[in-house]
């Protein structure tokens, strides 16, 4: 479909979905965003749903301002994927050992490495800029300085919630590795620190929603936020790269005879800010639950722990600020999912997938998510499908 346009206070709201399918709370959040004095455009992806601060699945283009709550607290959260030389014929009948080896190599949930991972010891990991990156930790907000040790030990860890590591097959029976994670606790604490500062600034006192507090250009608060934001986005990118290197190492060891090789990694943020130019304006584009889909750019759009995911190539649709959805999107809250579904439902909906099937991940049940194939259909003018993947192993925190 192409987009549906709804009127907004300062800019129209362009939706790549049926407005009637969007819950009232999310629609109100979008209307609130459209009232911001600095806004120049608002695009809404088909995975749209209510979020804390700002709607998940929204692309907000502003001039001279950025809203930290519209980035979200998992700064730089995103996806990485790589195609391997392995095929379905190389796989063992029992996948539990492989899942166990992955969980041993990569801490999940709140877990962390006993000692920081040395990227120099990782096969094929490009560690250029690593020392400079950690050197810049001295320049981030003092409020999080005491978290440095934790941040170093969480580098290369998964987290919980919708974060996952998957081993998948595409439609030609090639094995893919895929993972989803962000900037871990350090990103969350930096985000919450800056959201708090923004909410106290005088120019934000008359906003319709205090969660939409912004920083404006040429102020020390904006400079400090952008410094910390870009550092956290880099942390998230390194975090995924290290996890992928650890995951590849597991695959090499477990499939020694097949001597697996790996193609070029695809990686994309879906909670972040980028400086981009549209209609002659230099804008700060915030994607919360959206990926960049510029012409020819590769991206990853996952489903849920029991459904398909997609490798895509962007079509460069400027009406959507060169964006696409970040996944299927939730159709019910975590608490609603726990009330609605049982562990038996989870077992049924993840049949054929080697994964956790217990109450601890019930809120991640596929039934709590929108239909990924319908979401893909709604954004045919934003991306083209390169590969359709289906997981046979899913690791959750």
UniProtKB/TrEMBL annotation:
- As given in the record, the signal peptide range reads none
Name its co-factor(s): Mn(2+)
Q: What is its EC number?
A: 6.5.1.8
**Molecular function terms in GO for this entry?**
DNA ligase activity; GTP binding; manganese ion binding; RNA ligase (GTP) activity
Residue numbers annotated as active site: 326 (gmp-histidine intermediate)
Q: Which SUPFAM superfamilies match?
A: Hypothetical protein PH1602
Q: Which UniProt keywords apply?
A: GTP-binding, Ligase, Manganese, Metal-binding, Nucleotide-binding, RNA repair
Q: Which amino acid positions bind Mn(2+) 1, per UniProt?
A: 74, 163
Q: Example GO biological process term? A: RNA processing
Query: Which sites bind Mn(2+) 2?
Result: 180, 270
Recorded catalytic activity of this chain's protein: a 3'-end 3'-phospho-ribonucleotide-RNA + a 5'-end dephospho-ribonucleoside-RNA + GTP = a ribonucleotidyl-ribonucleotide-RNA + GMP + diphosphate
Gene3D superfamilies in the record: tRNA-splicing ligase RtcB
Can you tell me where the transmembrane regions are?
none
Q: So where does GMP get bound? A: 162-166, 270-271, 302-305, 309, 326-329, 396
Q: How is the cofactor bound?
A: Binds 2 manganese ions per subunit.
Q: Which PANTHER family match?
A: RNA-SPLICING LIGASE RTCB
What is the protein's given name? 3'-phosphate/5'-hydroxy nucleic acid ligase
**Organism for this UniProt entry:** Streptomyces phaeofaciens
The beginning of the lineage is: Bacteria, Bacillati, Actinomycetota, Actinomycetes, Kitasatosporales
